[in-house]
Amino acid sequence: MLRPNIFGKSMALNGDKTSTGATCIATLNTAIADGKAMLRVGDPTTQCPKCKQAGQVITGENRVMNHGKAQAVHGSIVRCGCPHGTHFVIADDPVNTGSDAISSNSSSALNKNSSFSTRKSYHIRYLCKNDNNEALCHSSYYFYLNNGERIVGKTNGDGYTDWHEFSEQEKPNFHIIKDY
């Protein structure tokens, strides 16, 4: 399995190194990708080898929220005692650039929350937002699975789709329909 791609940048994960050699520490263990916890803005790092202070991730991809915080990506800035911008997350292993990568070409920003386990059971849901970053509540959606099956649903009052479980990793073709 490959590291997810978010708007062209690799998703930052627990254990990733930083530009100064510190190690990133994810504080939320329920959001998993590639078998590792996803790193978010606010998560700490180990002590920076250059300035000898612990760091904290302070920037991320604001179009993708992970449990209320922006998702950290390759290049996210880490604050420590070093000059601003010189300490950043390195998430450089191979990334997934397939159809399940999040793209800025869609009419809505889709926040993908996924969890993968060793049981080969895959769970996925989306937080659907419009171009103004407003949740698309009570909107119809559908997506097609690899086998051609169509799943239909309606987002909840917070803009989330239902959780969907699959026995294999899917690359769904997702569509949101704004209900008027």
TrEMBL record:
InterPro entries: PAAR_motif
Domain of life: Bacteria
Pfam families for the chain: PAAR_motif
CDD domains attached to this UniProt entry: PAAR_CT_2
Name of the protein in question: PAAR domain-containing protein
Biological source species: Proteus vulgaris
